[in-house]
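dude i think i finally got it to work??
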Amino acid sequence: MKTLAKILLLLFCAGAARAAEYINSPVGREVYYDPYNEGVDAHLHSRLGEACGAYSRAAEAALKLDDAYSKWEYARAITLRAAAHHARREYSLAEKYYLESLAYARKHGLYLGSMAQSGLGRIYLERNQPQKAGLLLKEACELEYAEIGRTSQAGVTASRDSLAAAISDLGRLNEQLGNRQKAEVYFLTAVKIFKDTAAPGALKVIDAEQMDSFAIILYRTGQFYRGGERPEAGATYYARALAAFESWRGLDGRPALKARALEYRGRTLRALGRDAEGLADLRESSALYRQVKGKKTAGK
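look at this
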């Protein structure tokens, strides 16, 4: 059990609540970690229906183990199942499992990072329900700040991608609430976080399909300025977004993430008046989304 405790401690310190890592199973816990790792592999290759089924089996195994560590394992599996449904755009199912994960984690005092809060908050933003999203997204951003402090103290290089995405979410939240001055500050802060780091590539975390990348943050900032009747500023950010999409390479093995990149690049191209190119990207994105949703989700 000491080995398991060390593994769990390492996971927490390295930000495993978000990192897309496989976990070597401690002896005697293969019944959980075998399906868990199957789920991670399927998730990272956009076999999302398969991932949902594997996470469901892992969660059932954790309930049967019923010991000091199985509660965290159960909540982790449920959170990842929610993220897989989210990537498939099965928003009602994603909402169901995010809520279950949050309630379970709070009941048992578990630390799981910000994935459930940010994922659920983003669903509410997509539904234009900022009042329901507000507390979730603020908590998610606070957890991301804390996670950077935690990983830095552990001597681990902290990625700022998820923090920038969380700040961008607050920009969207305040824009929907009509707080344009606050929204502008959040969008520009998210842009600056990426500017102060090495050139970002495509996100490699397990819930990347619903996070804002640098390119998408630039696009959203352009939309914000265009909506505020500052078209020249908007055009500047659209141009920067289009250039940033060049970093989205090598995504053929993860079609759900590629679909999101194409969707937002298509929107960016259309915002720049390049309708034919934009529509081509949007058609390819739609085809990839249909491919991702083509297989039945196990364990509904």
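The radius of gyration is 19 Å.
im so relieved honestly
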